[in-house]
Amino acid sequence: MLENLIGFRQSGRSRAEAGAAVTRRPTLGLALGGGAARGFAHIGILRTLVANGIVPDIVVGTSIGAVVGASYAAGHLDTLEQWARGLQPRNIFGYLDIRLNGSGLIGGSKLATQLEASFGSTLVDDLPLKFASVATEINTGHEIWITSGRLVDAVRASYALPGIFEPVLVGERWLVDGALVNPVPVSVARALGAEIVIACNVSTDVFGHGTIISAHGTPPEAGATEPEPVPEKRGFGKLFSAEKAVKREFFGSGGRPGISTVMVEAFNIMQDRITRARLAGDPPDVLISPRVGKVGWFDFHHADAIIAHGTRAAERSIESIQEAISLLSPTDNQVPGTAQETPP
Fold it and tell me: Which terminus of the chain has fewer CB atoms gathered within 10 Å of its CB, N or C?
């Protein structure tokens, strides 16, 4: 009787140990890629993952991915989502403090104020999970992982698109957008200890049909056209005309791309090529790819639709993520180091 009781207790302890082994979940890392307005899809992705019990232990981000990742890590994702859904074209222009001097077309102080209001003096070191943002040192081209210091500085440096936003001084380094070197930072998540990396690439279908055109030139019937003369304005009309001219040069008009369009599209092409190369060399365990290729970089006022795209993309990936977690989890009712007995 006593032996049976002892055996029962030992058996119960073994089952408890086996149960503890089963509940041990592999470390999850989430790598959020850059893509300006398209990055709002990360909000829908995060919401869907957490709702399905897939909670990341490590979050890393580049550019807009750093903004969303930092907001989640600091507990301010609700604030970011509310702000994003409330954006209208007039609000967006209000955040673009355009300047014609300095090292960027946009000073970035208004956006920085918005981030300061959310993050305050929060430090990366004090976040409840591991977080890193990716930036690029402008003088050397080094890939910089910001894993300490002020959270707002880490985020600002990661989205400082060259030529559009001014570089950000962190420590003794001038930093710009991390998408120049690592648009979807899978490698950072692995280096911080992630056993399973879920990558979110919001630029996956932007240049899906890209190819090489072997020969291209001006059709014989096409001739050069002279620009139409602009009538001279006087007084207040001249003042307002100058303001419109600056916006026209920045955003473009009449089918002609503006400064911002040329810079962003060139950056877009480069980011797409770098992303393909980096993901081929260090693929994630699961890749979430929202279909947001039609969304422009400055279409922040379409946040509702962009977030919905992220939600749908994450829902399509839930089964794959759960399968990856199951494969790396201990076998049911098996204690490490012991063999399973086959019943007679």
Answer: C
State the catalytic residue, choosing from 57, 153, 177, 285: 177
Contact 176, 135 (CB under 8 A): yes
Judged by phi (left if over 0) then psi (alpha if -120 to 50, else beta), residue 172 lies in alpha
> What's the whole-model pTM score?
0.78
Q: Quick one: tokens of 125?
A: 């070191």
pLDDT digits (tens, 9 = 90+) for 98-139: 565 555 556 556 677 888 888 999 999 999 999 999 999 999
DSSP 241-305: HHHHHHHHHHHEETTEE-HHHHHHHHHHHHHHHHHHHHHHHS--SEEE----TTS-TT-GGGHHH
Residue 172's identity, in one-letter code, is: E
Among candidate residues 57, 63, 71, 187, the one labeled active-site is 63
What CA–CA distance (Å, rounded) separates 171 from 337? 48
177 is catalytic: yes
User: Which of residues 289 and 258 earns the better pLDDT score?
Assistant: 289
Are 26 and 195 contacting, i.e. CB atoms less than 8 angstroms apart? yes
Taking only the tens place, the pLDDT of each residue in 253-268 is 666 777 767 777 787 7
Please answer whether residues 34 and 183 qualify as being in contact, where contact means their C-beta atoms are separated by less than 8 angstroms. yes
Nearest Cα to Cα of residue 10 among 278, 255, 297, 335: 335
pLDDT in tens, 133-148: 999 999 999 999 999 9
Active-site residue flag, 285: no
Q: Which two tokens stand for residue 31?
A: 């790598």
